[in-house]
Amino acid sequence: MKFKKYILLVTVFFSGFIVMVFELIGSRILGPFIGTSIFVWTSLIGVILASLSLGYYLGGKAADKNPNLEKLSSIFFLAAFFMSLTFIFKDILLVFLQLYVRDIKISSIISSLLLFAPASVFFGMVSPYVIRLRIVQLEDSGSIIGNLFAISTFGSILGTFSSGFFLIPFLGVNNVVIILIVISIFISIIIFPR
Asked: Does domain 2-190 have CATH number 3.30.499?
């Protein structure tokens, strides 16, 4: 039982961490092809927030139907899968958009939707799903939810500063994306019931 509790805390921490690193990397992925203007940042942030919101909704619905660690493991694995697709297809998509879509607003929205929305939806599903797995009785539900959101937000803060100050400058975008994929797959494996 203690193992399950701690693995769920680690899960929400890394979910928050990865989302922020993924978002910051997004600007570096889009930058060489469509720039880093306010339109690009607006599209990237807006699409990721909308995707997380959809993920929260879907995660809550899924958590109400027989929640278990196997499904949570699948959610994390699918997030890793879609990040892998981002890594594989980013250059092809962005070259295509650079050649055929002249409006920077449209190209930044399309690229953000196709490259960053799918994985972000699955990362958004993690928190409500973990909350459902952690709540045993309603009496302590408020403190459990508060703790989980605090841990997730701490992961996001750490992800923001570590990616901006260390990861991206020293490792480069491609290596950081690969690291995020590997971390996500590893978490998916350790969540999976023994």
From this structure: no
